[in-house]
C-alpha cells in the first residue's frame, strides 16, 4: 500500500495533497458510506505496506495533532500507514481550528464548500463520532491485510462501538483486524445516572471552551448517547472476535498528579472484564500540571517506541498487568 492506493482502491470524495514533511505521501481525505462520514489525514510510509493504524482521538480531537507531532514518524519508518481521524463537527475557521485540523489546505477548501465544520453536514451529533471508525473500517479493511485500531480517551469508546457493529456486518473482514489499543480510554461500565464520568462529560460539553472547538448539539443529548455507548460496548463486548488483542494503557501513578484526572483507570479493568481478556499497562510517568495546562490524561510522556510496541502484533506485555516507570 502506498499513496496510489487511494486512487485505485478507496477513491475518496475529498483528497488533498498535504504540504510540508511527508508531503509526497500524505493526504487529507473524506469518505462517506451508509454508516456516515470520516475525515482526516492519511500518511503512507516510503515502502509498500499492508499495515494501517486507524487513530480515533478523544474530545474535542486534539489527540490526532499530538499523535502526528510526537509518534507518527516512528510508525512510518517501521512501515505502517497511519490514518488520523478528525471529528465531524470540528470547526474549520474557528479560533483554535488551525491546531485541531493542523491543515491549512483543509481550511482553504472550506471557503469553497462553506459547511464551516468537518463532515458532510452541519448538524453532527455524538452518534456521528461513534461511527467514524466504522466508516474507516468499511472503506479500508477490504483492501488490507492488517488493521490496527488505536484511540485516546473518547476514542476507544468509538473504536469498540464501531468494531462491534463491523463484526456484526462483516465477520469475515474482522480477521484482518489484529488489535485495539486504548490510551486512557473511557470504556467502563456506567453504574448510575450520577456516575462521575457522565457528570464530567455533561459539564464539559456546556463550556464555552468546548463550543469554540466543536459543534455536536445539545449537551444532555450528547451525554445520553455517551452513556448508551458505554452500556452497549460492555454488554456486547464478547461479539468482538477472540483473535483481536486488547491493550489498555492508563495513567495510574503513585501520586495525585500522576493519575488520570478525567477517566478512571478502573474503566479499563471494567472493559477487560467485559471482554474476558486483555492487558493493562500502567503508565506511572505521566504528570499533570494545572499551571502549564498539562494533564496526566493526555499521555504525552509515551514515547514513539512505546506506541510502536503497542500497535505491533509481534509485541505483548510480559504480564497481564504491567508498568511503565
Notes on the structure:
- The chain has 325 residues and is α/β, with parallel strands linked by helices.
- The protein has one domain (4-324): Rossmann fold.
- It contains twelve helices and ten strands.
- A ten-stranded mixed β-sheet has the order 1-2-3-5-4-6-7-8-9-10, with helices on both faces.
- Helix 6 crosses helix 7, helix 7 (154-169) crosses helix 10 and helix 8 packs antiparallel against helix 10.
- The longest helix has 17 residues, at 219-235.
- The chain is globular, with a radius of gyration of 18 Å.
Q: What is the gist of this entry?
A:
This protein is an alpha/beta fold and 325 residues long. The protein has helices at 4-10, 63-70, 72-77, 97-101, 104-113, 126-140, 154-169, 196-205, 208-211, 219-235, 266-275, 304-311, and strands at residues 14-17, 26-33, 36-43, 51-56, 81-86, 146-152, 177-183, 245-251, 279-283, 321-324.
Report the C-alpha radius of gyration, rounded. 18 Å
In the predicted model, the low-confidence regions spanning at least 5 consecutive residues are: none
β-sheet strand percentage: 15-25%
Number of strands: 10
Number of domains: 1
- The name of the CATH topology is Rossmann fold
**Global structural class:** alpha/beta
Order of helices and strands: HEEEEHHEHHHEHEHHHEHEHE
Describe the largest sheet. Answer: 10 strands, mixed
Overall pLDDT confidence: 94
Strand order of the largest sheet: 1-2-3-5-4-6-7-8-9-10
The shape, in one word, is globular
Main traits of this protein?
alpha/beta; Rossmann fold; 10-stranded mixed beta sheet; 12 helices; 19% strand
Amino acid at each position: 500500500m502506498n499513496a496510489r492506493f487511494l486512487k485505485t482502491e478507496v477513491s475518496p470524495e475529498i483528497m488533498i495533497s498535504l504540504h510540508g514533511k511527508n508531503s509526497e505521501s500524505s493526504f487529507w481525505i473524506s469518505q462517506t458510506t451508509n454508516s456516515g462520514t470520516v475525515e482526516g489525514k492519511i500518511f503512507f510510509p516510503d515502502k509498500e505496506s499492508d499495515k494501517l493504524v486507524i487513530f480515533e482521538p478523544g474530545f474535542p480531537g486534539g489527540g490526532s495533532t499530538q499523535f502526528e507531532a510526537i509518534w507518527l514518524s516512528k510508525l512510518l519508518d517501521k512501515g505502517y500507514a497511519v490514518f488520523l481521524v478528525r471529528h465531524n463537527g470540528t470547526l474549520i475557521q474557528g479560533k483554535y481550528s488551525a491546531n485541531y485540523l493542523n491543515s491549512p489546505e483543509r481550511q482553504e477548501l472550506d471557503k469553497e464548500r462553506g459547511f464551516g465544520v468537518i463532515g458532510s453536514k452541519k448538524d453532527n451529533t455524538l452518534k456521528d463520532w461513534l461511527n467514524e471508525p466504522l466508516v474507516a473500517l468499511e472503506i479500508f479493511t477490504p483492501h488490507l491485510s492488517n488493521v490496527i485500531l488505536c484511540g485516546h480517551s473518547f476514542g476507544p469508546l468509538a473504536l469498540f462501538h464501531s468494531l462491534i457493529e463491523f463484526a456484526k456486518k462483516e465477520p469475515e473482514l474482522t480477521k484482518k483486524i489484529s488489535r485495539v489499543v486504548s490510551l486512557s480510554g473511557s470504556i467502563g461500565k456506567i453504574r448510575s445516572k450520577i456516575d462521575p464520568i457522565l457528570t464530567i462529560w455533561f459539564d464539559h460539553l456546556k463550556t464555552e471552551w468546548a463550543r469554540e472547538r466543536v459543534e455536536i448539539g445539545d449537551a444532555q443529548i450528547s451525554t445520553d448517547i455517551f452513556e448508551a455507548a458505554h452500556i452497549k460496548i460492555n454488554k456486547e463486548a464478547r461479539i468482538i472476535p477472540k483473535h483481536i488483542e486488547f491493550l489498555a494503557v492508563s495513567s495510574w501513578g503513585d501520586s495525585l498528579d500522576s493519575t488520570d484526572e478525567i477517566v478512571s483507570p478502573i474503566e479499563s479493568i471494567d472493559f477487560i472484564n467485559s471482554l474476558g481478556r486483555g492487558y493493562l499497562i500502567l503508565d506511572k510517568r505521566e504528570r499533570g500540571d494545572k499551571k502549564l495546562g498539562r494533564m496526566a490524561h493526555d499521555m504525552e510522556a509515551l514515547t514513539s517506541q512505546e506506541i510502536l510496541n503497542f500497535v505491533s502484533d509481534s509485541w505483548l506485555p510480559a504480564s497481564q498487568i504491567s508498568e511503565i516507570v
